[in-house]
Design brief:
This protein is 7% helix and 28% strand. By secondary structure, it is mainly beta. The chain has one domain. The strands form 2 sheets. Strands 1-5-4 form a 3-stranded mixed beta sheet. A two-stranded antiparallel ribbon has the order 2-3. GO terms for molecular function: zinc ion binding.
Length: 61
C-alpha cells in the first residue's frame, strides 16, 4: 500500500503557517490522526516530520 502523494514529498510552509500542526487546517481530517503541533521553528534545518503519518515539512523564509 502506497502512502498518499502529499506524504511522499516535503511540504513547504511559511512563518504565517506557524504554529505548524499536522494535519494542516486545509486537509480533510475525518480519517486522519489527532492533530499534533510540530516545533519546526526550533529545528536548525527548519524541517519537521509528523510522528503519526510521516509527513515532512520544510520552513521557507
Amino acid at each position: 500500500m502506497q502512502p498518499p502523494p502529499h506524504l511522499q514529498q516535503v511540504r513547504s510552509v511559511s512563518h504565517k503557517d506557524l504554529p505548524l500542526c499536522c494535519p494542516l487546517p486545509e486537509d480533510e481530517v475525518w480519517n486522519m490522526h489527532p492533530r499534533v503541533y510540530l516545533p519546526i521553528e526550533d529545528d536548525p534545518g527548519g524541517e519537521a516530520t509528523c510522528p503519526y503519518c510521516g509527513a515532512r515539512y520544510r520552513l521557507e523564509d
